[in-house]
Design goal:
The protein folds into two domains: 19-86, no CATH class; 87-127. It has a four-stranded antiparallel β-sheet. It has helices at residues 5-11, 22-29, 64-69, 74-83, 88-124; strands at 33-38, 41-45, 51-55, 60-61. A hairpin with a 2-residue loop joins strand 1 and strand 2 (41-45). The protein is of the alpha+beta class and 127 residues long. It binds zinc ion. Residues 52, 61, 63, 65-66, 73, 75-76 line the site of zinc ion.
């Protein structure tokens, strides 16, 4: 069996790492408690019970992540989700796309494994 560059390229795989934002992942998965405090203002409690005050319109949050990194922290993202002002379909499409890419990656690894198992048998017949 001859191997062409295109065959090897087809087998070539890069390490897989999805691109779902870590703050989105935490906003969705952590057990945060969100209580409406006023128009666009929410009290968000961490899993440890620490309270943060979130304004989803400005946006602002009293947590260190927002204060020092000026990023939309998990509290702002979770309050937006609870307020219905976050496009969950967009996140859902990102997650599905990452799952599809991961499935391709797994199929690629399985093909490489099958080839190596076959190569091992080929080797054994010469021993
Ligand atoms: Zn925060």
């Amino acid at each position: 069996m001859s191997t062409s560059p295109s065959y090897d390229e087809a087998l070539a795989t890069q390490p897989f790492k999805h691109e779902i934002d870590k703050r989105d992942r935490r906003a969705l998965s952590e057990r945060l408690t969100v209580i409406e405090h006023g128009p666009d203002v929410y009290q968000v409690y961490s899993e440890e019970g620490v309270e943060y005050l979130v304004d989803i319109r400005k946006p602002s949050c009293t947590c260190p992540d927002f204060i020092y990194r000026e990023a939309d922290c998990k509290h702002i993202r979770r309050a937006r989700i609870e307020a219905g002002s976050r496009d969950l379909d967009a996140i859902g499409k990102e997650v599905q796309s990452a799952l599809d890419a991961l499935d391709d990656h797994i199929a690629n690894l399985a093909a490489q494994r099958a080839e190596l198992v076959s190569l091992q048998r080929d080797l054994d017949q010469f021993r």
